Amino acid sequence: MRKQLNTIIHSLVVESEVPAKNIAKAVGKAYPTLLREVNPYDKGAKLSAETLLGIMRVTKNIAPLQYMANRLGYDLIQKSE
Question: In the chain, what are the domain boundaries?
């Protein structure tokens, strides 16, 4: 499960319409640091929940949250405004 979630997060950052450098700046990370933290093959770097939340806010992509909810047996429903 962890590897798949890490892959989803990595793809979210590197394939987003928002450039990864802009994502890094928006979440308060240096670009190389963010790329290391989302690298699914880097066992030494950790991505915080706060940073993940920031990434999802900036990219407007909640794929990691959808994956986690699904794995826990939940459905996400968007809050109406």
Answer: 2-71
